[in-house]
Each structure stands twice: as C-alpha cells, then as structure tokens.
Amino acid sequence: MAGAHSVRVAVAQMTSINDLATNFATCSRLVKEAASAGTKLLCFPENFSYVGDKDADNIKIAEPLDGPIMQGYCSLARESSMWLSLGGFQEKGSDDAHLCNTHVLLDDAGNIRSTYRKIHLSYKESSFTKAGKDIVEIDSPVGRLDPTVCYDLRFPELYQQLRFQHEAQVLLVPSAFSKVTSQAHWEILLRARAIETQCFVIAAAAQAGKHNDKTESYGDLLIIDPWGTVVGRLPGENWLIIPNIS
C-alpha cells in the first residue's frame, strides 16, 4: 500500500436530497474539512449528488461525465489537491429510460482516473438502471483502489476477483443501504469481505437518515482492516471520519 507511511483517508457520511446545489454545498464543506486535515483521499457515498423522490427524478437529472455536475466535483478535487471517490453518480445512459450508477474516482488534479458502473442491481434498480459489466482498479497514493457500489457487497466472488486477479489493496463500498437490511447484514458482510480478501474495506461512505418521505438510509459508516477489525465507525448524519491507513 503506502509503504511504511500512514496515509490519511477521509470518509464522508451525508443525507443527500433532491437538490443538486444543496448536496454540492454539503460535499464542498466536507472537502474543505478533509483538506484542512491533510487528507489524501475523501470517499463520498452512493447518490452523493442527488436522491430523487421518484426514480424518474434520477433519470431526469442524469448527465454524462463531462457534464456540469461532475465537472463541479472535478473542480473540488483540483482546488483541494485531493483524490475523491464519488460513488455512485447518476450517469446518463444510452437511452432516455435508463441511467448508469457510476463510481467515479478523481485524482488530485481533478482528472477522472477510473469509472466503475455498478454490476449488481437491487431495490428495483433494474427498471431504470443499466448494469455495468467491467471491474476496474486504479493505483493511488493510498494504494490500489478497487471501486464497487452498495449491493455489490452481497456477491463475494466479485471481491475475490478484485483481490486475487487485480491485486486489490483497498476495497471501496459506497452505499445507500436500506435501514432494515443494514441493521441485519451491513457490518457482517463488510467484515467478511475484508477477512476473505485480506484488504482494507472502506464502506464509504454511507447515506444516512431520511432523504424524503419514502426513502431512509441506515448510515453506519465503517472502515475495516484486513483482520476484520473495525478501525473506524461513524453513525449519524453529515459528518466526517479521518483515520490513518498504513
């Protein structure tokens, strides 16, 4: 990973709503806080930029990666000189009825270095989301990062492939897990993936709390070491946790 040196990684937990500007302001604040602490990588949750009241709302605001929404986050990365893990983003799909749930990794110059489109879809996602096909990895100041998204967590073979075919060191699992399933399965699955692969797992960032009258996320942000030990934890909303990874 980062050799003998500790690397500062920040993980954000937030409650996104159906307002792009409000969510961007929250992310901007968290970026500034992380930058002031000397962070090298800041991880945001699934749907960091927007959570619609209806599926159609997400499709309506979906943009290509070179659109103004993602370019705003590229500017945040560049201005803070920090890598950003943004997963997943509502990327415009190949037709007007679908989007891609895309985990985007930005480097500290604001360049898009990697994109992973969520492979395993849940919670009726398949009705408006196109599943991805490819797994990816990217070398960073923190080590080799392998992005996934939320429901992917339930498929251990994906993480085995990332570790033993792609030499993963840090597994990223941004999420918006539902409250009921998270209370039963969230920590167990994350610790299992860490132990099985002998990787750090950043369950990045989680959405937390009520987004609207119909949608509520669990909000139990966890960072787990290769032994399966929880080395960072944060319940609640709109906060940041900054451990050292070595």
From TrEMBL:
| Molecular function terms, GO-annotated | hydrolase activity, acting on carbon-nitrogen (but not peptide) bonds, in linear amides
Keyword DNA repair included in the entry's annotation: no
Q: Which Gene3D superfamilies match?
A: Carbon-nitrogen hydrolase
Query: Transit peptide among the record's keywords?
Result: no
One Pfam family named in its UniProt record: CN_hydrolase
Alphabetical keyword list: Hydrolase
Q: Where is the CN hydrolase domain?
A: 7-246
Q: Which residues form a coiled coil?
A: none
This protein's source sits in the domain of life called Eukaryota
Listed PANTHER family: DEAMINATED GLUTATHIONE AMIDASE, NITRILASE-RELATED
What is the name listed in the Swiss-Prot or TrEMBL entry for this protein? CN hydrolase domain-containing protein
- Give the species this sequence originates from: Citrus clementina
Output the lineage of the source organism. Answer: Eukaryota, Viridiplantae, Streptophyta, Embryophyta, Tracheophyta
